[in-house]
Amino acid sequence: MSMLLIRNAALPDGRAGIDLLARDGRFVEVGPALGAPEGTELLDAQGLLFSPPFVDAHFHLDSTLSHGLPRVNESGTLLEGIALWSELKPLLTEEAIVERALRYCDWAVAKGLLAIRSHVDVCDPRLLAVRALLQVRERVRPYLDLQLVAFPQDGVLRSPGALENLKRALDLGVDVVGGIPHFERTAEQGAASVRLLCELAAERALRVDMHCDETDDPSSRHVETLAYETQRLQLHGRVTGSHLTSMHSMDNAYAAKLIALIADAGLSAVANPLINITLQGRYDSYPKRRGMTRVAELQAAGVPVAFGHDCVMDPWYALGSADMLEVAAMGLHVGQLTSAAQMRACFDAVTAVPARILGLAGYGLEPGCRADGVLLQARSPVEAIRLRAQRLAVVRGGRVIARTPAATATLSLPGRLAQVDFAA
Ligand code: FE2
Predict the structure, then answer these.
(1) Is residue 67 assigned to a domain?
(2) Which of 38, 393, 404, 407 has the greatest number of C-beta atoms within 10 Å?
(3) 18: which strand partners?
(4) Are 256 and 231 in contact (CB under 8 A)?
(5) Distance from C-alpha of 66 to C-alpha of 321, rounded to nearest angstrom
(6) How far is the CA of 211 from the centre of ligand 1 (A)?
């Protein structure tokens, strides 16, 4: 029997001075001043924030850490990124994808990110990336939940053989049906792709997560079809529209109708602020659009909105470090989500909301939940975002699996404190 007592934590719901007792990988008691049997491992939170782990609802683990291979994206556009990925694909090996993905998962664990939904490109008859990430999913299973989306990067209708490859990927055990309607040859083909992919998901009782309307073109309205098909096929609660950047540029009158349809259908949305702010607006002069979807309006209509990292050091994005607090901070700024409730929701957008989108079982801090979480060098969710707080300890199944020293600076100034830790 393994026991862990997390002593004197602040929780994301505002409770302070809370102990969490874990036995055999699950929380069994949560409350003030808990006792614990002898031999229990102790983690003293010292009043700091203990949160359920970060969850990334949108990532690409097959391309991560490939930046510069075979060259960098000079224009910074989505389309050059896709072309660059096509140049890289023939050069990939299964071993190299596995090695890079595992390295990224190490970064993720160190940052308290213990669940990732990763798209995996299926437009390759060898299904090299699929086989690599299925292998990675098994290898990381003890410490990280990896959910895979069969993603037809070059278009399920546009790319010959893509539909068959996508089905083969699902047969091999990929979890979720993906799509990219705005990249199909015509708007009609895009709508047809949404229909056939949703039907495929309904047949197989799978979830759906589509790259949808990732463009500044306000006439890209595939999310409307996604909402319609979700309702027609009764897929409520199982379908996610990722990116939805065209909504940023839509006419307000149409957006108001669309958001109600999205809410009605029980769709979830994932914005990817770091990527949206860099890839979108590239055809603008000034003013340049931000490109992120209408987060505040979707949330106000009751649509669950998560923030995803999307890319780290790949053909689309040269930066990143698996830090979901950086993602939350960018989402907060780009969306001008500055009220107290909105800032707080930005923390949920990288924790509880994506956990719901992935359908993670046993996520949370209640008794019975899996004893996973992260001790942050901050006293509240908003302070965690402000400071991109250090992950002092990361807990998985009631065991501490990563530690990072506290961030402090030592000053040499007359009449001032010697140690500064940026706490307010
Ligand atoms: Fe993506």
Answers:
(1) yes
(2) 393
(3) 9
(4) no
(5) 13
(6) 6
* Predicted confidence (pLDDT) at residue 106 exceeds the cutoff of 90: yes
CATH number of the domain enclosing 387: 2.30.40.10
Range 337-356 average pLDDT: 98
Q: pLDDT tens, 19-61? A: 999 999 999 999 999 998 999 999 999 999 999 999 999 999 9
Find the domain containing 27 and state its range.
Answer: 3-51+364-410
For the record, the structure tokens of 368 come out as 């019975």
214 is catalytic: yes
Q: Which one of 184, 214, 224, 383 is the catalytic residue?
A: 214
Looking at residue 1, its pLDDT comes to 76
Gap from CA of 114 to ligand 1 centroid (Å)? 19
Q: What is the pLDDT of residue 418?
A: 84
Q: Give every CB contact of residue 291 below 8 A, 6+ residues apart in sequence.
A: 216, 245, 248, 276, 277, 279, 280, 281
Tell whether 278 and 370 lie within a shared domain. Answer: no
Compute, in angstroms, the gap from residue 407 CA to the centroid of ligand 1: 32
- CB proximity list for 285: less than 8 A, separation 6 or greater: none
Q: Are 111 and 312 in contact (CB under 8 A)?
A: no
pLDDT grade, residue 422 (50/70/90)? confident
Ligand 1 centre to CA of 59 (Å) is 6
Say how many Å lie between the CA of residue 391 and the centre of ligand 1: 26
In whole angstroms, what is the distance from residue 224 CA to residue 386 CA? 35
- The pTM of the full predicted model, rounded to 2 decimals, is 0.97
CA angle 390, 393, 395 (to 5 degrees): 135
